[in-house]
Amino acid sequence: MSSSPEIAIFASGCFWGTEHIFVKHFPPSKGILKTTVGYTGGKESSTNPDYRTVCSGATQHAEAVRIEFDPKIVAYEDLVEFFYRTHDPTTVDRQGPDVGTRALIIPPYRRSRPSELILVSPEYRSAIFTTTPEQATIAQRVTEEVQAKHFTPNVSPSLSRRILSAVLPYRYPQGKTIVTTIQAAGPWWDAEEYHQLYLFNNPGGYQCPTHRLHW
């Protein structure tokens, strides 16, 4: 008897690369049945967003991928671990050269206009949008495990280089902290058709360099 498909939603920068790396490593035979890229996690008042308004930062939505998967083939926790494995979850509102959110008020002495403001988009944040309480529990647990295993805590400078080389074997700098947000999934809007499976339809198109296997 077949199981009912479940939904996982992840945001890890430009959704072209997020979707591409998941589909590449989890074809239907390995559990992912369908993916859709879109917008979620924005202001309640911002409905039916499009790419342009999301990029403006006005809606506060994240670019995300909605994954339909077969839990009999791939476990949700494995998808969460893969999510962390394929981007940098320690940077706020950005992935590599793709810079997202923050409203930056320029100090008066540097302004060319009295009320000059720079607003960039939050679309590239790292986030997990859970669809059940069980997913929330799993996501939190896996996050803590990944933090402990792959993002090492600060250590005493008195430790020898030999000891440091043993306890700090990972690629990420010492003392990094995961800043990924975990929240219940809210309204979802599909992105425009040309964004769907973009890197499969446009081989050689832009892919954020952080979307790779980090371990």
UniProtKB/TrEMBL annotation:
Domain Peptide methionine sulphoxide reductase MsrA: residue ranges: 8-102, 122-208
Xref: SUPFAM superfamilies: Peptide methionine sulfoxide reductase (SSF55068)
Keywords: Oxidoreductase
GO CC annotation terms, alphabetical: cytoplasm
GO biological process per UniProt: cellular response to oxidative stress
Molecular function as annotated in GO: peptide-methionine (S)-S-oxide reductase activity
EC assignment: 1.8.4.11
Enzyme class, spelled out: oxidoreductase
Highest rank taxon of the organism: Eukaryota
Catalytic activity: L-methionyl-[protein] + [thioredoxin]-disulfide + H2O = L-methionyl-(S)-S-oxide-[protein] + [thioredoxin]-dithiol; [thioredoxin]-disulfide + L-methionine + H2O = L-methionine (S)-S-oxide + [thioredoxin]-dithiol
Statement: the UniProt record of this protein carries the keyword Oxidoreductase: yes
NCBIfam families in UniProt: msrA
Alphabetical list of HAMAP family matching this protein: MsrA
Similarity comment text for this entry: Belongs to the MsrA Met sulfoxide reductase family.
Name of the protein described by the UniProt record: peptide-methionine (S)-S-oxide reductase
Originating organism: Mycena chlorophos (Agaric fungus)
Taxonomic classification: Eukaryota, Fungi, Dikarya, Basidiomycota, Agaricomycotina
